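User: I'm writing a short report section on ligand binding and want a predicted complex to refer to. Could you take this sequence and 4'-deoxy-4'-aminopyridoxal-5'-phosphate and write out the structure as tokens? A short remark afterwards would be nice.
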Amino acid sequence: METVYFNGKFITKEEVKISPDDRGFLFADGVYEVVRWYQGFFYDLNGHMTRLKRSLRELRINWTDTDSFPDFAEKLIKINSLENQTAMVYLQVTRGAARRSHNFPKPDVLPTVYAYAWGFLPEVKLKETGIKAMLKEDIRWSRCDIKSVALLPNTLSFQEAHENGLKECIFVRNGLITEGSHSNIFFVINGTLYTHPESNYVLSGITRKNILRIAEDCGIKIREEAVEENRLRFVQEAFISNTSAEVMPVTELGGNTIGDGVPGPVTRIISDKFDNEINSLKG
Ligand code: PMP
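Assistant: Sure. The structure tokens for the complex follow:
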């Protein structure tokens, strides 16, 4: 039986009751986080907590118990017997339930807090071959830095990729490559690692941040600078990053083969160093 966390309680998923007046349901008025459990610990929980607090602040959602998340996330792992597995915890916090109105509820209502955990098998094979992705105009709003649950442009775009047998949709805004529907993207051009800088047009990925740190430690030259779509023919390597895929090579983008069509050497170094870091944390 699956046990979830709902407004301070551990209950079964079937017992969860969310009001139809919940602003998450009516307006997608909420934020989320996803943290990964590596058979004994959450990777960079501090990074996720900092981003969660920022997202809540930007949406002016006042969840006073934010710091309880690490504790109940771990409890969810344990209650659901996932300690010895690779697992994820999803957290969603909405502004709460109040009669539908564009302005925020007055007086304040309590936010709705929901979290659940699940085990999964990492995509080891895909990391060897790399993935193919499509390119598409970035149809999202201009606050992509907030980890908001308003993901319709992301899901519509990802569905398009999925229906075409592709594993990700990479967005292009004003000729510049921003990020994927649920990942950040990196390029290697003449040995230099490029990724879009932190801005309101991308989500500041926790994996992205750690990759930049790892790459710097390896002495790889880094430029946090957007790559123009029309420079893609000069790209030798590409990879996407997120909490579930970690470092995932991209071998084809927008119908064009990247480099030799196989994961490249810089991607491999970064991916190996990332794996080493995880293994060293496992102790
Ligand atoms: N960008 C978007 C739009 C995302 O949805 C995600 C996944 N949450 C990322 C980037 C990667 O973030 P992270 O590395 O923290 O999983």
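A remark for your report: The chain has two domains: 3-119, 124-282. Residues 189 and 235 are 5 Å apart (CA to CA).
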